[in-house]
Amino acid sequence: MNTKKVNIIWSILLILFVVVGCDNEEKFDFLNKEFCLLADLENFHKTAPIINEYLRTLPESMSDEQKLQSLTDWLNSQPCVISAKLEGVWTDRDCMIMCQPGRYGHISILLDDHGMTRELALSFFGEYHKPLRAINYSYTKPKEVRVSFKSETTTIRDIFDFINLFDRKVLNIHRAGSGRGYLSTMPADRLGDILDILNAKSYFSGVHGYVLNNRMDIWAANYLFSSDHIDNYIVIDVTMSNMENKDYQADWLKFMNDYEFFEGNTHQAWFMIDFEVPDGKESEWIEKFMTYEFVIGATFNQGYGSMEGI
After folding, report:
1. Distance from the first to the final alpha carbon of the chain
2. pLDDT on residue 182
3. What are the tens digits of pLDDT across the range 192-213?
4. Are the C-beta atoms of residues 223 and 268 closer than 8 Å to each other?
């Protein structure tokens, strides 16, 4: 049964509970039986109707904090939940930066996903004078570790050498920070040809190119090089995948040489690699990666899902 049909069935069932007017105890029995059938990482968004229905059953006289604490207690009673904790309740008036007017809440969850422990953070929102509802969640991605490297001293050749130390699939390589792309002093009218070549390569999951011709932008992107005699740079931002493949590595190095590309702003930009590692072994690989001197960070990767439109 496809997701759309499942969601329609859930909506009909929950509407029937409200229309028929069964008491809260019967509703809770239904919610208790069904929550853990859907509460795994792949399907967690499908629990939104159950969570929101639980909130709707609570007395209107309860505060947002009381309602979310009651929901937290209910989650802790579920056999698929290892632990749940209410992390906070606030309004837009408490935001450090401007945020949508309304009330907010946050519950952290440790979920037993078929024997594997998953970390989730469930977010809630309600406009003023409207009920709170689950809106989205973030989670620690299984089987992924992100490794970041020192700027200035780390080149793409160093990155390939690091990859070749391990028998691990490379999900992504990209650069972060200011002036994060690759630069070339080739004529600006070659940009179209360069992008055509890049887009034909199977190891790119993202390609973006443009021309820098503003003096301040050139200086920022090319921090460690003199740009007094340069009127413009071709800049490309790329995300590479499957770069454990040494043929892909050699092809990229040849391309950089043929088209005169080099890493931009090595002072304020750095490489990041997303590795695939065995499920449940992420922490071990984080510790392993952190033993290398030129690694500045190794962390879990984060994913995001919507609880709305279900």
Report:
1. 15
2. 86
3. 999 999 999 999 988 988 887 6
4. yes
